[in-house]
DNA sequence: AAGGATATCAACCGCAGAACC
DNA sequence: AGGTTCTGCGGTTGATATCCT
């Protein structure tokens, strides 16, 4: 597949941006909005390649960037997300409002890696440095892990047959040996929802999607698609592979040590046990998105103030249809 | 004060999927 | 269907700042 260079390199500036270039870019995007990066430099009167403009805007000039030092909470969130997602910086950044993937990537490489090493944790595997991979499956902890994991696979049905309401619950707590069970689902979700789509890298990081966060227990329930989705598939895709039901990740159960009250959701709205119905999209800070089906938000306040789109519900990477907190 | 080592982070590069034609 | 373009991603580089001797 041939491709032309993204710009006339001979006529473009490189290196650090000047104040004037920044001003031009900001002014242009304010007037015309983002997008069409290839044609933007010329239209904005910049001697830069489109990619460079995009990067400058996204990583530095965007008005919603937070800047400043990372907080301890952000540190810990990055560590947890990295333990789940690996080097998927854009996904991690999607859960840290005001932070960019580049910023987080740099921060990881310069600060957090060292921080974890000082704690005796391998930043690549999130395991103790002296816990070599070959011994992992044979030590006593690993045995216990396997047992616990098996117990956590709560499969209501032995198969994923068409027409059944099979749900498989996978707990990420102690979930190392069952990584392969969710690997396919996450990869599928990621490849459908990742904007840039980079399966090459997803493959590289998926083996790391396993429990390394002792206080964040993520459970995935896998079951056939929702009824409405099947209808959608039937109507929109004449070449649907009806003999093959793509398993769906249905639930994420957050078992957080400090949050014992249940938050059960179903579809776009969720209900507290008391019967209070909340909008799932609102509860996750995406009340203005197309996912939002209500006009009110949790507790009458804009949940976007939380800023978090935890686990990709905004970006759609992990398009869980319901969320359950225990 | 000098200069070498190390840390930081903005920017670049190449790749790959999506979208378009 | 296949070629081309656009876009976004993660890895890497290199300029600058800071620290250390």
Automatic annotation (TrEMBL):
Keyword entries, A-Z: DNA-binding, Nucleus, Repeat, Transcription, Transcription regulation
InterPro entries to which the protein is assigned, alphabetical: Homeodomain-like_sf, Myb_dom, Myb_TF_plants, SANT/Myb
Top-level taxon in the UniProt lineage: Eukaryota
UniProt keyword annotation of Transcription present: yes
Matching SMART domains: SANT
Molecular function per GO: transcription cis-regulatory region binding
Segments forming domain Myb-like: 9-61, 62-112
GO annotations of cellular component type: nucleus
The HTH myb-type domain, residue ranges: 9-61, 62-116
Compartment annotation: Nucleus
Region (Disordered) residue spans: 183-208, 225-245
SUPFAM superfamilies: Homeodomain-like (SSF46689)
Basic and acidic residues compositional bias, start-end: 183-199
Biased composition (Low complexity): 230-245
Pfam families from the UniProt entry: Myb_DNA-binding
Family annotation (PANTHER family): F14D16.11-RELATED
Name this protein carries in UniProt: Uncharacterized protein
